[in-house]
Amino acid sequence: MKVKKTIPSLVISFGLVFGFSSAISFAAPLDRGVQGGWSEIDGYFTVGSSNHFAALSSDEPDSHTGTVESRERGNVIEERVVGETYWDGIYHYTRARFENIFTGSAKADSGRIYGWDHTIAYSSWLGDPIEFVGKTYYGKG
Asked: What CA–CA distance (Å, rounded) separates 86 from 105?
Protein backbone atom coordinates (compact mmCIF):
# COMPACT_ATOMS: atom_id res chain seq x y z
CA MET A 1 0.00 0.00 0.00
CA LYS A 2 2.86 2.41 0.80
CA VAL A 3 4.47 1.77 -2.60
CA LYS A 4 1.29 2.82 -4.45
CA LYS A 5 1.17 6.12 -2.53
CA THR A 6 4.90 6.80 -2.90
CA ILE A 7 5.09 6.46 -6.69
CA PRO A 8 2.47 9.15 -7.49
CA SER A 9 4.11 11.42 -4.93
CA LEU A 10 7.50 10.97 -6.58
CA VAL A 11 6.05 11.61 -10.03
CA ILE A 12 4.33 14.80 -8.85
CA SER A 13 7.45 15.96 -6.98
CA PHE A 14 9.66 15.34 -10.00
CA GLY A 15 7.24 17.22 -12.25
CA LEU A 16 7.11 20.21 -9.93
CA VAL A 17 10.88 20.37 -9.44
CA PHE A 18 11.65 19.88 -13.13
CA GLY A 19 8.96 22.32 -14.24
CA PHE A 20 10.01 24.98 -11.74
CA SER A 21 13.72 24.68 -12.44
CA SER A 22 13.23 24.79 -16.21
CA ALA A 23 11.03 27.89 -15.88
CA ILE A 24 13.62 29.65 -13.72
CA SER A 25 16.53 28.76 -16.00
CA PHE A 26 14.64 29.76 -19.14
CA ALA A 27 16.43 32.54 -20.95
CA ALA A 28 15.22 34.53 -23.88
CA PRO A 29 17.20 33.71 -27.01
CA LEU A 30 19.87 36.33 -27.50
CA ASP A 31 19.53 38.68 -30.42
CA ARG A 32 22.08 38.36 -33.17
CA GLY A 33 25.19 40.42 -32.43
CA VAL A 34 24.96 40.32 -28.62
CA GLN A 35 28.48 40.05 -27.21
CA GLY A 36 27.80 40.47 -23.51
CA GLY A 37 25.93 42.34 -20.85
CA TRP A 38 24.66 42.36 -17.31
CA SER A 39 21.83 40.67 -15.41
CA GLU A 40 20.35 41.86 -12.14
CA ILE A 41 20.44 38.22 -10.94
CA ASP A 42 23.57 36.73 -12.57
CA GLY A 43 25.86 39.76 -12.93
CA TYR A 44 28.12 40.35 -15.94
CA PHE A 45 28.49 37.93 -18.83
CA THR A 46 30.13 37.63 -22.25
CA VAL A 47 28.98 35.58 -25.23
CA GLY A 48 31.19 33.75 -27.69
CA SER A 49 34.91 34.41 -27.74
CA SER A 50 37.07 32.48 -25.32
CA ASN A 51 40.10 34.45 -26.50
CA HIS A 52 42.36 35.17 -23.51
CA PHE A 53 43.57 38.31 -25.24
CA ALA A 54 40.07 39.73 -25.82
CA ALA A 55 40.73 42.51 -23.32
CA LEU A 56 43.59 43.69 -25.54
CA SER A 57 41.49 43.71 -28.72
CA SER A 58 38.39 45.53 -29.88
CA ASP A 59 36.29 42.38 -29.29
CA GLU A 60 35.37 43.58 -25.80
CA PRO A 61 34.34 47.06 -24.65
CA ASP A 62 36.53 49.14 -22.38
CA SER A 63 33.70 48.95 -19.83
CA HIS A 64 30.04 48.03 -19.56
CA THR A 65 27.80 48.68 -16.57
CA GLY A 66 24.22 47.81 -15.80
CA THR A 67 22.02 49.07 -12.99
CA VAL A 68 18.38 49.27 -11.99
CA GLU A 69 17.16 52.66 -10.82
CA SER A 70 13.98 53.21 -8.84
CA ARG A 71 11.64 56.10 -8.11
CA GLU A 72 8.42 56.58 -6.19
CA ARG A 73 5.33 57.83 -8.04
CA GLY A 74 2.45 58.18 -5.62
CA ASN A 75 2.25 54.85 -3.80
CA VAL A 76 3.94 52.87 -6.62
CA ILE A 77 7.64 52.10 -6.88
CA GLU A 78 8.79 52.21 -10.51
CA GLU A 79 12.06 50.86 -11.85
CA ARG A 80 14.07 51.22 -15.02
CA VAL A 81 17.19 49.52 -16.34
CA VAL A 82 20.23 51.55 -17.40
CA GLY A 83 23.10 50.18 -19.48
CA GLU A 84 26.26 52.10 -20.31
CA THR A 85 29.11 51.04 -22.57
CA TYR A 86 32.48 52.65 -23.34
CA TRP A 87 34.17 51.20 -26.41
CA ASP A 88 36.85 53.53 -27.76
CA GLY A 89 36.86 53.85 -31.55
CA ILE A 90 34.10 51.25 -32.05
CA TYR A 91 30.58 51.74 -33.41
CA HIS A 92 28.43 49.65 -31.06
CA TYR A 93 25.12 49.50 -29.20
CA THR A 94 23.82 49.23 -25.66
CA ARG A 95 20.38 47.90 -24.77
CA ALA A 96 18.46 47.95 -21.47
CA ARG A 97 15.25 46.08 -20.65
CA PHE A 98 13.32 43.95 -18.20
CA GLU A 99 12.83 40.25 -18.92
CA ASN A 100 10.19 38.01 -17.35
CA ILE A 101 11.89 35.49 -15.03
CA PHE A 102 9.54 32.70 -16.16
CA THR A 103 9.13 33.26 -19.91
CA GLY A 104 12.07 35.47 -20.87
CA SER A 105 9.75 37.90 -22.66
CA ALA A 106 10.97 41.49 -22.76
CA LYS A 107 9.20 44.54 -21.36
CA ALA A 108 10.15 48.23 -21.17
CA ASP A 109 12.85 47.68 -23.82
CA SER A 110 15.10 50.59 -24.81
CA GLY A 111 15.92 48.97 -28.14
CA ARG A 112 19.48 49.15 -29.41
CA ILE A 113 21.07 52.55 -28.83
CA TYR A 114 23.94 52.91 -31.33
CA GLY A 115 26.93 55.21 -31.24
CA TRP A 116 30.70 55.60 -31.36
CA ASP A 117 32.88 55.36 -28.22
CA HIS A 118 30.10 55.72 -25.59
CA THR A 119 26.44 54.65 -25.47
CA ILE A 120 23.84 54.73 -22.73
CA ALA A 121 20.44 53.06 -22.86
CA TYR A 122 17.44 53.62 -20.58
CA SER A 123 14.47 51.30 -20.46
CA SER A 124 11.13 52.94 -19.81
CA TRP A 125 9.87 52.99 -16.23
CA LEU A 126 8.00 49.87 -15.11
CA GLY A 127 5.67 49.89 -12.13
CA ASP A 128 6.06 47.04 -9.64
CA PRO A 129 8.25 44.72 -11.79
CA ILE A 130 7.97 41.72 -9.45
CA GLU A 131 8.27 39.00 -12.12
CA PHE A 132 10.95 40.84 -14.09
CA VAL A 133 14.72 41.06 -13.94
CA GLY A 134 16.78 43.95 -15.30
CA LYS A 135 19.21 43.09 -18.11
CA THR A 136 21.55 45.04 -20.35
CA TYR A 137 23.34 44.02 -23.54
CA TYR A 138 26.10 45.34 -25.79
CA GLY A 139 27.43 44.40 -29.19
CA LYS A 140 28.63 45.54 -32.58
CA GLY A 141 25.82 43.99 -34.66
From this structure: 27
What is the DSSP secondary-structure string of the chain? -HHHHHHHHHHHHHHHHHHHHHHHH--PPPPTTEEEEEETTTEEEE-S---TTGGGSTTS-SEEEEEEEEEEETTEEEEEEEEEEEEEEEEEEEEEEEEETTT--EES----EEEEEEEEEEPPPEES-TTEEEEEEEE--
**What pTM did the predictor assign?**
0.74
Asked if residues 80 and 108 have their Cβ atoms less than 8 Å apart, the reply is yes
Write out pLDDT tens, residues 6-55.
Answer: 444 433 343 433 343 333 334 455 678 899 999 999 999 998 754 444 44
Contact criterion met (CB below 8 Å) for 135 and 127: no
